[in-house]
Write a structure and sequence with these properties.
Blueprint: H1 8-17, H2 28-63, E1 81-82, E2 88-92, H3 97-102, H4 109-120, E3 129-132, H5 146-163, E4 167-171, H6 173-180, H7 186-189, E5 193-197, E6 204-210, H8 213-218, H9 223-237
Parallel strand pairs: 2-3, 2-4, 4-6
Antiparallel strand pairs: 1-3, 5-6
Helix pairs in contact: 2-5
The chain binds uracil.
Length: 241
């Protein structure tokens, strides 16, 4: 009777199911290919596990952060939300009251408009990664100061390095000015593709700036320009610009 020969994958499955293998039951030829394959798989698993650890570490550091005075007024930190390998990473200003309560970014009225803006370019919130320049709510919903944004920047840079998006979108003047280190107004910064340099990652990233959804709620007459920005974002992601 001929002996049954198992491939490497079959051997692993059998082992996992508790069936012992007899000597010589491995298929030598298939073994090399499958070994290479399983090395790729294990490398991917290791990378995935490392990434998970890096996110956990970041989350913990942000939760414990006291780098600036904003920590004193927060109920909880708001790190970010969404797809951890998104092509699009959006950066808003700062958590507001609702975000501070829920621990998630853009969950108030501005967040609802942001969801509708994303729908215009056929995207859902789960498709993108959303965060803010600072991870704690500033008191009385004031803008975060440049010092507070600098204190929080290493966290944002780590998020960007982990997600590795194709495009960054700055929502509003505060985020755009901080990310691009400029004092130009949002109306001047929108309408172009800028370059964002990340300190901890040896590459630059394209950045598009657009109006903040909270501003659009107050000034709906700017929605036409915001629509043009959204089209530019879609074109970029589709490889048309
Ligand atoms: N909610 C956020 O999370 N960020 C903003 O900039 C505004 C509202």
């Amino acid at each position: 009777m001929s002996q049954q020969i198992w491939t490497a994958t079959q051997q692993m499955a059998l082992k996992a199911m508790g069936f012992p293998l007899w000597e010589g039951e491995a298929m030598e030829e298939g073994l090399h290919q499958e070994k290479a394959c399983s090395q790729d798989t294990s490398q991917a698993l290791v990378e995935g596990a490392n990434q998970e650890l890096a996110w956990q570490q970041l989350e913990k550091e942000v939760q414990d952060c006291t780098r600036c005075g904003l920590c004193q007024g927060r109920s909880q930190t708001v790190l970010g939300a969404g797809h951890r390998h998104a092509a699009l990473l959006l950066v808003g200003e700062a958590p507001g009251a609702e975000e501070d309560r829920q621990g998630k970014p853009f969950v108030g009225r501005a967040g609802q408009l942001l969801t509708r803006m994303l729908a215009v370019i056929d995207m859902q919130r789960e498709d993108v990664y959303i965060t803010n320049t600072v991870k704690c709510r500033p008191p009385d919903n004031r803008k975060p100061t440049p010092v507070e944004m600098e204190a929080c920047r290493p966290y944002l840079e780590r998020q960007i390095a982990l997600v590795q998006p194709r495009l960054l979108v700055a929502l509003g003047g505060v985020a755009a000015q901080s990310l691009l280190r400029t004092e130009q107004t949002i109306s001047r910064l929108r309408g172009a593709i800028h370059t964002y340099s990340i300190v901890t990652w040896p590459e630059t990233l394209p950045l598009i700036a657009t109006y903040h959804p909270a501003f659009l709620l107050r000034s709906p007459q700017y929605k036409k320009e915001a629509r043009a920005d959204l089209d530019r974002i879609r074109d970029f992601l589709d490889g048309a610009s």
